[in-house]
Amino acid sequence: MNHASSSSPDIAPAITSRQGQLFRDGRPYRILAGALHYFRVHPAQWEDRLRRLAAMGANTVDTYVAWNFHERTEGEPRFDGWRDLEAFIRLAGEVGLDVYLRPSPYICAEWSNGGLPFWLTGRVSALRTSDPAYLAAVDRWYDALIPRIVPLQAAFGGPIVAVQIENEYGSYGSDRAYLEHQRDALLTRGIVELLTTADGITPDMVTHGSVAGALPTFTFGTGVSTAQELRLQEDALMCSELWGGWFDHWGEQHHVRSAQSMIGTVEELLAAGGSVSVYMAHGGTNFGLWNGANHDGALQPTITSYDSDAPIGEGGALNAKFEALRAAFAPFHDGELPERPAPAPMQTAQAAPLRPVASLRAFAGSLPVVGESTPLPQTFEQLGVEDGIVVYQAHIDVPADATVDIDTLHDRATVFIDDERIGTLERDRRLSLALPGAARRATLTIVVESLGRINYGPRTGEGKGIMHGVRINGRRYVHGWTHRALPRDGVPSAGAREAADAVAPAEVPAKSAADDAGVARAAIDVETPADAWLAFPGGAKGMVWLNGFLLGRYWKVGPQQTLYAPGPLWKAGANEIVVLDTDELGPTVEVRESPDFGPTEEFVGS
Question: Can you say how many angstroms the Cα of residue 556 is from the centroid of all Cα atoms in its chain?
């Protein structure tokens, strides 16, 4: 079967699959791709990272399109600034790379909610199916997205040579009508290039993830021979995600894969006549709160760094994997590969004191009220809060020596009675706290943090916040709730600046010596803006803003010990660091010249 799109019989795709291989301009062809996500790289660094990818020997850049990154507010999709997908695609073409586009609606990618908008998953339960409400939202999104990428296809002089339908659907569902709808949604809107699907290497996954008219491709760390057995004889062999590294969850070790292990699988695939996309070639960063999470008995939130032990490191460093791939890919090019770009300049190491601004309790009380008071606590979705922190407050009658119990918490809560911190509760672990002392009237304040929206598996789309209710002694519900919220953005926008401004010293009381958690500020003087790595020794669990931009989280459970702070976010002169630590503020912020990803373990992926 010829897996070429056929929306117009007069327009030929750049690449076709037939006779067991890919062809381009009548000649056998290999896609040599590397995954690099525009939404994980500062736009000012897009060109640098793309040039590093080309120097690695790739002829194609592979990127997802994260729906929730573009349409954070329903009905208001944006394609400007960091979200200028068309600019990224054109830039790739100018660098000399083709584009393998994977345009959602679901991407997984260890990205918040698997790329699905929170406002959609908050009201639609039958995700990734032919449910009318779900398809209507997807169609509206495609009406905004696809016309922008159609002119950028190779058939019209652009760099896009392949487009993926959905993502690893065979490991999630079995709605054939849904996959056909997604295929037809691309074709009828003008996609003419090679269509693909991507699934793991089991017969069941391939069966339920494939759809007529699209080339089935595979995802694996190792498994070339299995993929060869699963593919049809007439289909070209392609691994659209060859896992050269792996991602990390908080509390784990940093996953690495040796260059020897990775290149062994790549060379086996190339020797079998296959095409490849290395996932990730450059991982980048889950800036802000865009990290996803898994759930395997307990929530497993992904760390801020998405370095993934990739050939091109989070800060752009080139390593042994880069050199191994450059050598393996070079024979497939007619001329010399581009020169390796020079290392990025780094800031000189220094440290600055973190000066407390407000206790966590005072800060929580300073946040703006969201919505009306309600009998039961509202979820993030009901409040229209994408991520970050929601503060729940109610006036309660506390019996002597009572307990407070949260009925289903997503994800982590710090609990206060009046101004006294009584403990921390965590999803899947501890959901009850003792309230010692005599019977009294008090204010109950619960500071709830979303740690990352699940991006893979049947729990994708789960809500955040207090999901059902709060009870005293496991019996009596607490009624009458007020909600305050701190939405936190992972992109340079007014929202992130407002989050930083919300902690201005004039607006909240000074930090209490009795509460070591809360908000602090530091000033970092820089002569020449450049990349840096930030560390917060002594800090327990916090979020960090640099000049109003939310870099992400640190957490003492590791493995990540430093946050990447790209050069474009710095300015000459004074730079402001704002830290919100829910557990314990450290005394200083350190600027370091190299990253620390924590203790490592060899891991191939599964």
Answer: 21
Total domains, the chain:
3
Cα(first)–Cα(last) distance of the chain, in Å?
30
Give yes or no for a cis peptide into 405 (omega within 30° of 0). Answer: no
Distances in whole angstroms, Cα of residue 555 to Cα of each of 285, 388, 558, 582, 604: 16, 15, 6, 10, 25
511 lies in the same domain as 447: no
**Sheet containing 299-301, strands listed edge to edge, beginning at the edge strand earlier in sequence:** 299-301, 292-295, 453-454
CB atoms within 10 A of CB 400: 10
Per the listing, tokens 């049947």 go with 458
Amino acid at 512: S
**Which tokens in the block code for residue 42?**
């500062």
**What's residue 7's pLDDT?**
52
Do residues 161 and 239 both lie within one domain? yes
CB 37 within 8 A of CB 284: yes
Quote the tokens at residue 484.
């305050």
pLDDT of the residue at 513:
40
Q: What is the DSSP letter of 205?
A: H
Residues annotated catalytic, as ranges: 168, 241
Does residue 497 fall inside a structural domain? no
Q: Please choose, from the candidates 141, 127, 214, the residue with its C-alpha nearest in 3D space to the C-alpha of residue 175.
A: 127
Contact 175, 142 (CB under 8 A): no
Chain position carrying tokens 């392609």: 238
Nearest CA to 542 out of 418, 332, 356 is that of 356
Q: Does residue 7 fall inside a structural domain? A: no
Q: Would you state the structure tokens that stand for residue 165, as one six-digit string?
A: 């339908």
200 shares its domain with 287: yes
3-state SS class at 520: strand
Indicate if 301 and 408 belong to the same structural domain. no
Are 375 and 354 found together in one domain? no
For residue 353 the two structure tokens come to 């004191």
What size, in residues, is the chain? 606
pLDDT at position 499 is 44
Q: Domain range spanning residue 255?
A: 15-332
β-pairing, 432-435 vs 402-410, is antiparallel
With respect to residue 1, please indicate whether it lies within any of the assigned structural domains: no
The closest alpha carbon to 442, from 420, 426, 464, belongs to 420
What residue ranges of the chain have pLDDT lower than 50? 1-2, 4-6, 490-514
**317 contacts 283 by C-beta, under 8 angstroms:** no
What angle, rounded to 10 degrees, do the helices at 259-271 and 320-329 form? 20
Determine the pLDDT at residue 489: 56
What integer pLDDT is reported at residue 3 of this predicted model? 57
Given strand 482-486, what is the order of strands in its sheet?
420-426, 412-417, 440-449, 389-398, 482-486
CA angle at 126 for the pair 120 and 132, rounded to the nearest 5°: 80
